[in-house]
Amino acid sequence: MIAIDTNVLLRRVLNDDEEQAARATRLFESAESILITDVVLIETVWTLTGKRYKATKGDIRALVISLLEEPNTIFENKQAIWSALNDFVAAIPVKTAGGAKTADLADALIVNKTKMVARDRRLAYEGTYTFDRAALQIDGTRTP
């Protein structure tokens, strides 16, 4: 197994640097298994949804599904990614002082990984606490 950094995944996804994109693509095509850590996935999403690329929720959904379907791509916890993706897609906007805000994939991943850690350790999941009003729309979140 190998792991990749965010910049390798971004070059492959964006194809914005011909040489690096080709190298990233060759890596994906030749490696037996490639780990995309949660940090790399979330950094990629933050970059793509930022001011420069302005990816939509639909764009992120399509990207994550395509990565989950790659035969040689692995994640820290594939089920947590799927569950987080579903929560992210279903999240509804809430009004905030800065306008409407929706829970992001990072919020959803935090909640879902926490639930799975509790399950794996046979502990009762009692909630993920946050002050983020948008994240509070995800099942299992609580306010302190």
Brief summary:
With 144 residues, the protein is an alpha/beta fold. It is 53% helix and 12% strand.
Can you give keywords for this protein?
12% strand; 144 residues; 2 domains; Rossmann fold; alpha/beta
Distance from first to last alpha carbon: 40 Å
CATH topology of the largest domain: Rossmann fold
Regarding CATH, which class of the largest domain?
Alpha Beta
- Number of DSSP strand runs: 7
Full CATH superfamily name of the largest domain: 5'-nuclease
Strand fraction: 5-15%
Biggest sheet character: 3 strands, parallel
Could you walk me through the main structural features you see in this protein, from its secondary elements to its overall organization?
The protein has 6 helices and 7 strands, in the order βααβααβαββαββ. The strands form 3 sheets. The protein has a 3-stranded parallel β-sheet with strand order 1-2-3. The protein has a two-stranded antiparallel sheet with strand order 4-5. By secondary structure, the chain is an alpha/beta fold.
Write the layout of secondary structure elements.
Blueprint: E1 2-3, H1 6-14, H2 18-30, E2 34-36, H3 38-49, H4 57-69, E3 73-75, H5 78-90, E4 94-96, E5 99-101, H6 105-120, E6 128-129, E7 141-142
Parallel strand pairs: 1-2, 2-3, 6-7
Antiparallel strand pairs: 4-5
Helix pairs in contact: 1-2, 1-3, 4-5, 5-6
